[in-house]
Structure formats: structure tokens, C-alpha cells
Amino acid sequence: MSEPLSLGALREMGAQRLRAAAAAHGPDATPELDAELLLIHVFGVSRTRLRSHPEVSVGGQAEYERYIGLLERRATGEPLAYITGKKDFWSLQLTVTPAVLVPRPETELLVERALAVRPQDSGCVVDLGTGSGAIALSLASERRDWEVTATDASAEALAVARANAEALGLSRVRFLLGSWLEPLAGARFNLIVSNPPYVAADDPAMQDPALRHEPRQALTPGPDAMTSLRTIIEAAPDYLERDGWLLLEHGAGQAAEVAHALVARGLRSVRSHRDLAGHERMTEAQL
């Protein structure tokens, strides 16, 4: 780059590079938006300034080379959240790393339903397999008097979640290392929530370029997509208070099987809810 390029030129150059790679990213690719967000991230300009003054030239060779490098990472399918290190979820901005799953918008349905079934100001809730802490911290931010616990089998994931809690001023959330409910012997909760891995290891969806960058253990429990869901359903009643709720995110085609397992375990008021795409994305049940 012999001289600084304008914001508009940099945005279009980035979008062209990502459009060329879009075929590998599927129908949900957003090359123009991704280029814009990377431009904002590297050059520190606001979205308003970028759109109102695209003719303004910014940065130098170092920033330009960094922008090109990040575009190349995105072109390979690496999630934008890993590149920028940030992801918005619910009302929070979370730090994310490759140690945790990138929080999905559809998981906000789990937060919404948790707040709906437990409207009380007090309560004891646990988030199983917390990852970045997205669900647990969203609930803690909405219900300041709830006792919130989060577990994860990954020490690296818990470190990310703890850092997010500290950054958001939600230090009262308790984090425990261990698989699902194992670290919680003797405890009982008004609400158990979880977004466990629910994709079979041989599912074609696992070939998505973006998923290759995410922790495999957070995506798939192995050959049987229902393994983690069944494990949680089997154990949960022993950790629920009377009239307590279990809320589970699951795959779009798993609602009936999850509901059957919940009924077989003796839970009632079993209901599934659809995400914004119309898929049955989560199921709730009461002890």
C-alpha cells in the first residue's frame, strides 16, 4: 500500500475478498458485514463514521497489513468472534477464545425461558457446560439476587467464563470444574439450564468450515447425539427443588426424543419452544 486507502475502499476490498470465499461458508455468509466489522476492529472507527464518511483515509501500513491478515483468517472460515475476541450475547459483550463455543443467538431463547419460568427475585440456578459463561452471566445480570453456579469440564473454558464475570462485575457467580452435575453433590436448585453438545460426530454439519475452529467437545458428544442430553435428564431430578425446572437446548429435530426422555424420568409440564428460525430449539420440564 503506497498511501492510505479510504474507509470505503478498504471496506469494498475486504468484502470482495470474503465474497470470493463465500462459497465455502454456505448461504449464511455475510462478507460485506464481516469486512465492515473487521475494519472497525482494526482501525478503531465507529460504524457511524464508516458509513457517513467513507471517503476518509485512515491508518498506515501496519494497520493495513493487520486488516489483510484478519480478512484471510475469516476467508478460511474462522469465526469472526475468535478473530475479534468478542461476541455480543443477550445484553452482554463477552470475550471468547477457541477454548469455548461461540455463543449463538438461538441460545438466548434459553435465557428468555429461564427468566419466564422463574420470575421470582430469589432463586438458585446452575448452568451446566457454561463455556464462555453466556447463559449464567446473562441470568446473573438480569436477576441480581439469584445464586448462580456454572460448571464445565474444561478448565480453559472456566477461565474464560471467570474473566467475563469479572469484566462484567458479576463476580458473585460461582464456577466449578467438572462434568455436568458431578461437582454439585448434595446441592439442589430451582432451575437447571444447559446447552450441551447435541450433534452426532458423523453428522454432515460437523464439516462446516466454521465448526472446525470450535472446541469439538462442545459440539458433539460422540456417535450418539443424545448422550449428553440423556445424562443430564437422568441426573437432574436429584438436584432440583420441588417444582424446579430443567431447561435444555437441543437440535432442531430432537424435541420429541428429549420430551420423551423427560416424561420417562418423571418430569411434568414438558414444553418445547421454537427459535426465531422456527425450529424447536429448547425444551423445558418441571419436577
Explain briefly what this protein structure is:
The chain is an alpha/beta fold and 287 residues long.
Please give a structural write-up.
Helix content is 37%, strand content 18%. It is of the alpha/beta class and 287 residues long. It has two domains: 7-77, Orthogonal Bundle (Helicase, Ruva Protein, domain 3); 89-286, Rossmann fold, CATH 3.40.50. It has a seven-stranded mixed β-sheet with strand order 5-4-3-6-7-9-8, with helices on both faces. It has a two-stranded antiparallel sheet with strand order 1-2. Helix 8 (155-167) links the parallel strand 4 (147-152) and strand 5 (174-177). Helix 2 (31-43) runs antiparallel to helix 4 and helix 6 (108-117) packs across helix 7 (134-142). The radius of gyration is 21 Å and the shape is elongated. The N and C termini lie far apart (64 Å). The model has no long low-confidence stretch (mean pLDDT 93).
Q: What is the overall shape? A: elongated
Number of domains: 2
Helix/strand order: HHHHHEEHEHEHEEHEHEE
Mean pLDDT: 93
CATH superfamily of the largest domain: Vaccinia Virus protein VP39
Question: What is the CA-atom radius of gyration, in angstroms?
Answer: 21 Å
| Weakly predicted, low-confidence segments | none
